[in-house]
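User: I need a structural model of Mini-ribonuclease 3 from Staphylococcus microti for a docking pre-check later this week. Nothing fancy, just the predicted structure tokens so I can convert them on my end. Input:
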Amino acid sequence: MDFKLLSPLTLAYMGDAVLDQFVRGHIILKHQSKPNRLHQEAKRFVSAKSQAQTLEELLADDWFTESELAIIKRGRNAKSHTKAKNTDIQTYRKSSGLEALIGYLHLAQETDRIIELLYEIVNRVEKRC
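Assistant: Understood. Predicted structure tokens for Mini-ribonuclease 3:
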């Protein structure tokens, strides 16, 4: 199956889950704390604002391949029928673009690249905070 043909919002839906699971594992191993503290810590990584900022940094560093950029652009330009919570539409769309790429890499089983991307996201967020 060519996962590039899936709706970018479907890819973002999957990417959101993959990033959330990765971040949860990371913070549990790092903090070994109570669930409320873990949740507060996870928000730093998975909020739309954080994802949009990370995407901008990665774009500025030419981190993505051309085919990855195409997926990000599709995810960013997709028209969602839901409204962004706690952020503006541009930030929400940027985060959707990053999530779409994560979802695509996961479904396409591009294991090395998705692991590289997830660790890069975590490292950049931790450097900012």
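Before docking, keep this in mind: The chain has a mean pLDDT of 91.
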